[in-house]
Write a structure and sequence with these properties.
With 610 residues, this protein is mostly helical. The mean pLDDT is 84.
């Protein structure tokens, strides 16, 4: 273990602060259900945006993105479109406002505003969205859990502590043991303090990460001034053709095997499939996880949009400063690092912890470790909060004990939090690596989620029965597919998953009567969506001729396109800065400035419209 006492002190201080935050907000969180789950809907948009960005700054995702940047260079900025990252742009431009107008507490509760509180398929639709929410939350928890364990293993080799452990642990499960230990800290403060402590904890962590990322950016830029990066042609360019055309032969030949196993060689086809899937995923709105909970926690629909926009601004420049800096140091000192996976291969996900452990100064190591531990905790706690909300709000309070007191509801949140964490940790033992978990979540599970959730916003005839069968068919197909397709090729099966889910949605919709017109009119007047709503629009106008339908489809899509371009600029700008690519940097800044001026007129000034 190479940690200096100063670094250990920084980490210990951070961990103690999380306990203090949980205890400090315990009383406030216990006031009522809304205070615990949503912070009383009293938190300002910039705090929630910063918290949401912190939740996305997770340790597993950062390890994965550093490995991508190492292998694919500037072209790696496109691969996170798998999530897709540009869903934040759709949320920013209009979907966050649509969602927040419901005034619901969870995604399942939101369904009542769209399909009604009773009728064919309503209960089934709520159950299936709860099932999806829990499945995705547990998947993210397991994904974060295994990433954290692999990270800690670099700094605290098992050989140093196994003599103090009263049981034997197989080498492949060492990361899981470390994951359990630090999971307990995340569980403590988030269960005690609810949304209040989660947001404050995220703000502390973001401050630490900002200082650490800027510091490491200066170190990387200094090293690059005296070292040449030995990378293949095309590594410095974000542009690509039909093929990836990155040949690492004679440099680090094992990287070619990594590219092959990832399935990204035909990069043009991969990009088209990723964009196709991403567009529909973004149209579907936020998945029922921490992102949705933060939107529902905002004070107004306009603040919900501001929050989603703020996430991009404060997350991407800082995160990618860290990613490109660690990548550059990893390339410079590659031959001095041990990236062995214990089975004779190279684990590129170990680049991030290996660089921190070997090539950074005392103090910075402690800050980065504290920040990255906090990154794990914020993702884990936000995801756990979402799972608690669904189980307590949509199962316990609805079907088990509708008259539960505030004290009993909070106690149930505590119990559910512990159970959810235990299940997430258990599932983590069955995951081999971060990429495997990620591919399942973004390519398979979300592939089955999309069709129903696009139609619920945009098609009046879509009903609860259609939602249920679309979700169920998609989730079942997503659960079965990984048994027949390796993780690297799940994305290419997205059209099949989408088609199955779409067929289930349409057949299910026409197998039952339309949603009650009174419910549809209430939803349409409140949310004011655009799409295929003509019969409902005519009914609303018949009742109220002064009603103004939403005619902002073209403006919203224009804003999405230029907003996505701005998001790409925010991503690549710190990469050009650290690598001293002066002309591309100036061009990127110029494009970004023009887009900001346009969005001031087409988005910010029109937040109150529709």
């Amino acid at each position: 273990m190479k940690l200096h006492p100063i670094d250990i002190a920084i980490i210990a201080l951070y961990l103690l602060s999380t306990i203090f935050i949980g205890l400090w907000y315990r009383k406030k969180a216990r006031q009522n259900k809304e205070s615990y789950m949503l912070g009383g809907k009293s938190l300002p948009w910039y705090k929630l945006g910063l918290s949401d960005a912190s939740d996305m700054f997770d340790i597993s995702g950062t390890m994965w993105m550093v490995s991508l940047c190492f292998v694919y260079g500037m072209k790696s900025i496109w691969i996170p479109w798998l999530w897709p990252v540009f869903n934040q742009v759709f949320l920013m431009m209009y979907l966050s406002r649509w969602l927040r107008r419901s005034n619901a507490s969870t995604g399942a509760e939101w369904l009542a505003t769209r399909f009604g509180k009773s009728g064919p398929g309503v209960t089934a639709s709520q159950i299936v969205v709860i099932g999806f929410a829990l499945l995705s939350c547990l998947g993210f928890m397991a994904y974060g859990f295994i990433g954290l364990g692999k990270f800690i293993e670099i700094f605290v080799p098992w050989d140093m502590i196994k003599g103090y452990i009263p049981f034997d642990v197989a080498p492949q499960y060492v990361p899981h043991v470390y994951g359990v230990i630090f999971t307990l800290f995340a569980m403590f403060y988030s269960i005690l303090g609810g949304m209040h402590s989660i947001v404050v904890g995220d703000m502390v962590k973001y401050g630490i990460m900002t200082v650490a990322c800027i510091w490491i950016g200066f170190i990387a830029a200094g090293q690059l001034s005296s070292h040449h990066l030995n990378v293949p042609n095309g590594w410095f360019s974000p542009f690509f053709g039909k093929h990836l055309n990155l040949n690492w032969s004679g440099i680090i030949s094992q990287v070619n095997d990594k590219i092959k196993s990832d399935g990204y060689s035909l990069f043009g086809l991969f990009f088209m499939m990723m964009t196709f899937k991403g567009f529909f995923a973004a149209l579907a709105g936020p998945a029922p996880n921490y992102d949705m909970q933060k939107i529902l926690s905002t004070r107004s629909p306009e603040e919900a949009s501001k929050m989603s926009g703020f996430v991009n601004i404060i997350l991407l420049p800082i995160r990618y400063t860290l990613i490109i800096s660690l990548t550059a140091l990893g390339l410079i000192y590659y031959h001095q690092m041990n990236l062995s996976d214990g089975a004779g291969g190279i684990d590129f996900e170990r680049i991030l912890p290996a660089v921190i452990n070997n090539f950074l100064p005392v103090g910075l190591v402690g800050l980065l470790l504290a920040g990255l531990l906090g990154a794990f905790m914020s993702t884990f706690s936000g995801t756990m909060n979402a799972a608690q909300a669904y189980i307590v709000n949509d199962i316990y309070l609805k079907y088990v004990n509708p008259k539960a007191s505030a004290a009993k509801t909070i106690s149930m949140n505590y119990i559910v939090g512990v159970v959810v964490v235990a299940i997430g940790v258990f599932l983590g033992f069955f995951i081999k690596n971060v990429n495997e978990a990620l591919q399942f979540i973004v390519s398979a599970l979300y592939g089955g989620y999309i069709a129903s959730n696009v139609l619920k916003w945009h098609w009046w005839r879509f009903n609860a029965t259609g939602f249920f069968w679309g979700m169920l068919s998609g989730i079942i197909a997503a659960m079965i597919l990984p048994f027949f397709v390796d993780s690297g090729h799940l994305l290419y099966w997205f059209p099949v998953l989408f088609g199955i889910s779409l067929a289930g949605s349409i057949i299910g919709a026409y197998a039952a009567p339309p949603t009650d017109m009174a419910v549809l009119k209430s939803f349409y007047k409140n949310v004011r969506p655009w799409g295929f709503w003509v019969p409902v629009k005519e009914a609303v106008l018949s009742d109220d001729p002064t009603f103004q339908p939403n005619k902002n489809f073209k403006l919203n899509m224009f804003n999405v396109v230029i907003g996505t371009a701005a998001q790409c600029c925010l991503t690549i700008l710190p990469m050009y800065l650290v690598l001293s690519q002066k002309m591309p940097l100036l061009i990127t800044v110029g494009i970004l400035a023009v887009i900001v001026m346009i969005l001031k007129k087409t988005w910010w000034d029109k937040l109150g419209d529709y």
